[in-house]
Design brief:
The protein is an alpha/beta fold. It has helices at about 75-80, 90-100, 135-140, 165-175, 200-210, 230-240, and strands spanning about 5-10, 15-20, 20-25, 35, 40-45, 60, 85-90, 100-105, 110-115, 120-125, 145-150, 155, 180-185, 215-220, 255. It has a 7-stranded mixed beta sheet. Strand 4 and strand 5 (about 40-45) form a beta hairpin. The mean pLDDT is about 95. This is MBL fold metallo-hydrolase.
Length: about 260
């Protein structure tokens, strides 16, 4: 089976190398600072583990959503709209707002990316819910992704999903996954003050169990002040669930190969 390499950049951003292709999740490369979102402000506390200039060529961007700066900041927006990447997969609303190379990938539909070895990488759009049930009108449209193909590990990229019911739906439809990139951090903002907008640490561990994931790389759990649970919380939750050996918590700029 082909190797998957995950290089963690920071926040929700990682570079995946799979089947000879390089994929980038939710590009965020700005330095620390404040980002207004309507009447609210999100504050970034650290820059990327690697600057955008050192990332190198990218074959496709997997963009969970475009309307929150902790998932697509100014530098990331310039990347996906500036023509440097030919394929950007996201929600229908993101495609409408951003145009250009951004393509809608509806839930349970897929697109195929040609691999240098003559094979293909299948990218399937999967549901995500960025908060509690019924919050969609407030939080907007979000998506996740499943990557698969002949001789490749199956990889789940959750996006900003807070619903274990959706994780169960993904597991039911695609079966066990080899690697799960879970957006965690238990994000909270005044928009929905009484519920997390992403997985809590305990939910991330439960999601790993539901998916049968052999390896888990957490994303979206640090570098912004609205994350309420950090990497230490994730490690404790996975240990408590008996899944500590599956968790691969990376330092910014660090990588792991599976």
């Amino acid at each position: 089976m082909s190797t998957l390499t995950v290089r963690y950049i920071g926040g929700p951003t990682a570079v995946l190398e799979l089947g000879g292709l390089r994929l980038l999740t939710d590009p965020t490369f700005d330095g620390p600072g404040s980002h207004p979102v309507g009447a609210r402000t999100l504050t970034k506390t650290a820059g990327p583990g690697l600057p955008l200039a050192e990332i190198g060529p990218v074959d496709a961007v997997l963009l969970s959503h475009d309307h929150h700066p902790d998932n697509l900041d100014a530098s990331g927006r310039e990347l996906v709209t500036g023509g440097a990447v030919r394929t950007v997969l996201s929600t229908g609303s993101a495609a409408d707002r951003l145009g250009g190379a951004v393509r809608a990938l509806p839930n349970w539909e897929h697109t195929v990316l040609a691999r240098p070895d003559g094979g293909s990488l299948r990218v399937t759009g999967v549901p995500a819910l960025h908060g509690p049930q019924g919050s969609e009108p407030l939080v907007g449209e979000v998506t996740g992704f499943v990557l698969s193909g002949g001789g490749l590990p199956t990889v789940y990229v959750s996006g900003d999903n807070a619903s274990l019911d959706i994780v169960r739906e993904v597991a039911d439809r695609v079966g066990p996954v080899d690697v799960a990139l879970l957006f965690a951090g238990a994000a909270r903002t005044p928009l929905i003050p009484d519920a997390p907008l992403t997985l809590t640490s305990a939910q991330a561990a439960e999601a790993a169990a539901i998916l049968g994931a052999r390896r888990v790389v957490p994303l979206h759990f640090e570098h912004w002040t609205h994350f309420t649970e950090d990497g230490d919380s994730l490690a404790k939750a996975f240990d408590a669930a008996g899944l500590g050996d599956r968790l691969h918590r990376l330092a910014p700029g660090g990588l792991v190969r599976f």
